Amino acid sequence: MGRGGAHGEGAQPAQRRRLPGRHAAACRLSRGGARRLRARLRLIARDAPIVVLTGAGISRESGLATFRDADGIWARVRIEDVATPEAFARDPGRVHAFYNARRRQIADPAVQPNAAHHALARLARAWPGGVTVVTQNVDDLHDRAGTPNLIHMHGELAKARCGRCGAVTPWRDDLSVETACPSCGRAGAMRPHVVWFGEMPLAMEEIAAALDRCGLFVSIGTSGSVYPAAGFVAEVRGRARTVELNLEPSEGSRLFDETIHGPATRVVPDFVNRLLGPDGRGSSG
Questions:
Q1: Of 7, 154, 193, 261, which is the active-site residue?
Q2: Which of these, 52, 49, 207, lies nearest to 129 by C-alpha position?
């Protein structure tokens, strides 16, 4: 697995595509489709480990814009000016100002975990075979929903890292070029604990191990264009069931066994309920 893009779906903002106007209908399976999905879910052993990949789409309904939103925070900046190591070396004040604004946005009391975050947390606690949730998002909504076994592959905005000693510290306040590291005392070396373009995503060995043993791979709210995460489905094809839950088809939709399109707050809870079954303990029915 090679170097990937930056945090939170890490792609250069693209021209926003017109979204279909039938999301509510799109997320409802026909009776035949529901029966086929239930039948396929029954084939997944209860002790089969699950890997769930989440992208910016799962947090969109919590009020956090994605890279592809034309009116989002990323539409007002150039990626190369705020999300690369070179940008930080060139103008750390500008980079800090950008991430301070993002940190305050995530800390807004109006931004809360939504039904999709809570459904995944419930799945991760209930599934007998264990669930690893790998998120490309740098927000803390999965954490606040109580998701166990969570990997932030693109880092976390609620933490800061010292470029000198490497210490990672929980951080809710603004950062500046004068901020001193709580561990080594060095001023000017603190940076957001996020993965920038050209940097290696975090915990890749742990992610690779989870993919190697998974029996079900689920992708939620991703564009399918950001590597290495976009390549996860190809790695598990043929040895694990693969499902995409997304607002609209992603660039990698054709690689999945099943694709269900609609708002995350509808399709994710519905999928989790079908997977866990009537007893809520992983006996699909």
A1: 154
A2: 49
Chosen CATH of 1-11+20-62+113-154+200-285 out of 3.40.50.1220, 3.40.30.10, 3.30.470.20, 3.40.630.30 = 3.40.50.1220
Three-state SS at 198: coil
Q: How far apart are the first and last CA of the chain?
A: 36
Query: Is the pTM above the cut of 0.70?
Result: yes
Contact predicate 202/155, CB 8 Å = yes
Ranges of residues in the chain with a pLDDT under 50 are: 1-2, 9-28, 284-285
**Which structure tokens are listed for 281?**
């303990």
Q: What is the pLDDT of residue 19?
A: 31
Helix segments in 29-114, DSSP class H: 31-42, 79-82, 85-90, 92-107
154 as an active site residue: the answer is: yes
Q: What is the per-residue pLDDT across 235-264, written as a single tens digit (0 to 9) for each?
A: 999 999 999 999 999 999 999 999 999 999
